[in-house]
């Protein structure tokens, strides 16, 4: 029988007969092995086999367990032996080989709580939480009562599946049977509610626990950190110290996650120092990677780099942390350099690597480099990955190649809502309004319901393309056809759309009648439109609103100054510029990128550091002269 057919027969969820047949095939292999070893010709007793199985179960020694299984079959020790079959099923469940465990389990008539618990645990800990819950239900129907060894894994399964109501029902059963005082059950309740995001109930359970161990405190710390309440995580850590508990690596991992979210590098360094002083996390790549990630999130890229350099055996996560860290901190060049070094080092990239690298290509419009990354990820077999495919769509559209972006989008075997949104955003970025609307129609044809981001991108595309009528239709279709209330981003796009087209009165009407308080972005859109259509009075009103809401935003001052300059109101220009100087505001220098011969060149406004500066400025003077000869007149933007 060939391997593919055997693999098919061994799949779970088949009928008992097929599972029995697969079991016999496996048994035949084990028996063949043992008949070739003459030292195993003397049978062990049932008690000896049971003791060996228990030992192998504790150590999860799968290969030796298979050999013992073959020995018991060879000498017919397993026949009508419920004790050994129970031990054997528990062994396979402990090793995570659930198809084998299930075959043996189904053949046992008198199942005790030991066996039920091992099977429920096996399913819960090996990615099959639903089967764990089904088995728990069968256990109760069988008349077997659950105990403190059952509930921790039933609660884990509820948490993994986010089955809130069932989880609460199981919690009530725990209380009814008086098991809430068991520390393992209590810790499992904490973990389940943390997965639900219900830290309020988790805290109630925690406060009522008669006994707490280090796992209890760690569960609360990590729960708060994962549910974006980093302040509470640090408070629990403080209370943990007062209660006489000392932190371990799990504690510090939760705190590092909290530091990264809050971007509090001072506390992060304190956690790092505590780990060094207490020799926690030494030679532990997982802990070191968490430190690197924390420093990157806190914009301390140099500290992250120093840690990274000290890592002797860098795994994929180590490289990913630094590559994404440099990209997040605006150093796309270093991010791409590290990726090249990672490839030379022989470390295998994963989807996180490619997403970070493609994001770095976005920042500097490195289209050709992005194409080479695309080729590399295809060779590595990531071309069918939805997340990577979406990142490619985004990279090509931001790199200026809508054709490649659309080609990747069309070739994707499966598309998520984010994939559709990325394609719409690409058309929006290039002002291709009609194509963006066509994507909305395609989504409808494929029964994909758009979200807020999709409509924002479409309205933005209509704005840049000047499609006022179509933009209005999309805005009202969103409300009537999709029953979606416009958000601030949608109102901002509509103000920009109407303002660019010169419908300033209608734009003002939307601002005055919208359900929300207008934000600085909405007033800034009206200010830009007023400057474009030389409506100084409206520009002054919009500018004052922006100044009040965002006093440090220099762009609104520049826009108002340019509005006055266009009308030759030089006194007002000087007044606005004086306000900028008085407040100490500075505009970030403009930056552009040009990719030539697989090399990306960066230019800042007024930058003369490039090696070909003299030739570049000579060519600019030449172009300026040609423009002047052609009759072009320079104006204030």
Short structural description:
The chain has 637 residues and is mostly helical. It contains 35 helices and 2 strands. It is 71% helix and 2% strand.
Architecture blueprint of SSEs:
Blueprint: H1 3-9, H2 16-35, H3 46-59, H4 62-74, H5 82-94, H6 98-106, H7 113-125, H8 129-141, H9 151-161, H10 164-176, H11 183-196, H12 199-208, H13 214-226, H14 230-242, H15 249-262, H16 265-277, H17 285-297, H18 301-310, H19 316-328, H20 332-345, H21 351-364, H22 367-379, H23 386-398, H24 402-411, H25 417-429, H26 433-445, H27 452-465, H28 468-480, H29 488-500, H30 504-513, H31 520-532, H32 536-549, H33 554-566, H34 570-583, E1 591-596, E2 599-604, H35 613-629
Antiparallel strand pairs: 1-2
Describe the protein:
With 637 residues, the chain is mainly α. Helix content is 71%, strand content 2%. The protein has 35 helices and two strands. Strands 1-2 form a two-stranded antiparallel sheet. Helix 3 runs parallel beside helix 5 and helix 9 packs parallel to helix 11. The longest helix has 20 residues. The relative contact order is 0.03. The N terminus is likely disordered.
């Amino acid at each position: 029988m060939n391997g593919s057919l055997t693999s098919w027969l061994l799949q779970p969820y088949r009928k008992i007969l097929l599972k029995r047949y697969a079991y016999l095939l496996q048994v035949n292999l084990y028996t063949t092995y043992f008949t070739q070893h003459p030292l195993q010709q003397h049978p062990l007793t049932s008690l000896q086999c049971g003791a060996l199985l228990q030992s192998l179960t504790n150590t999860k020694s799968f290969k030796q367990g298979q050999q013992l299984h073959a020995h018991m079959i060879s000498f017919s020790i397993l026949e009508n032996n419920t004790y050994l079959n129970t031990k054997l099923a528990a062994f396979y469940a402990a090793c995570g080989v659930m198809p084998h465990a299930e075959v043996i389990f189904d053949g046992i008539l008198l199942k005790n709580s030991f066996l039920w618990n091992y099977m429920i645990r096996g399913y819960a800990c090996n990615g099959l939480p639903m089967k764990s819950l089904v088995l728990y239900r069968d256990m109760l129907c069988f008349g077997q009562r659950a105990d403190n060894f059952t509930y921790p894994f039933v609660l884990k399964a509820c948490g993994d599946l986010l089955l809130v109501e069932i989880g609460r029902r199981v919690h009530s059963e725990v209380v009814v049977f008086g098991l809430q005082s068991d520390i393992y059950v209590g810790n499992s309740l904490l973990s389940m509610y943390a997965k639900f995001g219900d830290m309020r109930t988790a805290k109630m359970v925690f406060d009522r626990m008669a006994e707490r161990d280090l796992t209890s405190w760690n569960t609360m710390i990590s729960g708060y950190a994962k549910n974006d309440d980093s302040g509470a995580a640090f408070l629990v850590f403080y209370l943990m110290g007062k209660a006489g508990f000392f932190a371990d690596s799990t504690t510090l991992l939760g705190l590092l996650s909290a530091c990264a979210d809050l971007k509090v590098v001072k506390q992060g360094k304190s956690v790092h120092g505590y780990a060094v002083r207490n020799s926690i996390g030494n030679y532990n790549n997982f802990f070191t990677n968490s430190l690197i990630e924390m420093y990157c999130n806190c914009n301390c890229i140099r500290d992250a780099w120093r840690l990274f350099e000290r890592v002797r055996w860098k795994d994929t996560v180590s490289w990913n942390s630094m590559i994404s860290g440099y990209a997040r901190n605006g150093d796309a060049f270093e991010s791409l350099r590290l990726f090249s070094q990672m490839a030379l080092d022989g470390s295998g990239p994963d989807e996180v690597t490619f997403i970070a690298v493609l994001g770095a290509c976005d920042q500097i419009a490195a289209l050709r480099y992005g194409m080479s990354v695309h080729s590399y990820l295809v060779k590595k077999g990531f071309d069918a990955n939805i997340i990577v495919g979406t990142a490619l769509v985004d990279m090509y559209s931001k790199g200026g190649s809508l054709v490649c972006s659309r080609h990747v989008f069309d070739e994707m075997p499966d598309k998520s809502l984010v994939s559709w949104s990325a394609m719409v955003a690409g058309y929006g970025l290039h002002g291709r309004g009609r194509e963006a609307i066509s994507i909305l129609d395609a989504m409808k044809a494929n029964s994909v319901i758009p979200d807020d981001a999709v409509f924002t991108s479409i309205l933005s595309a209509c704005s840049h393309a000047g499609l006022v009528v179509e933009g209005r239709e999309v805005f009202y279709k969103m409300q009537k056809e999709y029953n979606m209330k416009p958000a601030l981003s949608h109102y901002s796009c509509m103000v920009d759309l109407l303002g660019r087209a010169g419908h300033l009165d209608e734009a003002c009407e939307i601002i005055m009648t919208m359900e929300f308080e207008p934000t600085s972005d909405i007033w800034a859109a009206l200010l830009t439109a007023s400057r474009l259509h030389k409506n100084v009075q409206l520009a002054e009103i919009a500018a004052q609103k922006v100044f009040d809401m965002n006093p440090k935003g220099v762009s609104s001052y520049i826009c108002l100054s340019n509005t006055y300059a266009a009308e030759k109101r030089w006194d007002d220009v000087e007044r606005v510029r004086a306000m900028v100087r008085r407040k100490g505001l500075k505009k970030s220098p403009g930056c552009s990128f040009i990719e030539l011969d697989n090399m990306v060149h960066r230019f800042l406004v007024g930058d003369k550091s490039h090696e070909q500066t003299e030739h570049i400025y000579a060519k600019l003077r030449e172009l300026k002269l040609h423009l002047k000869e052609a009759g072009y007149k320079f104006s204030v933007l």
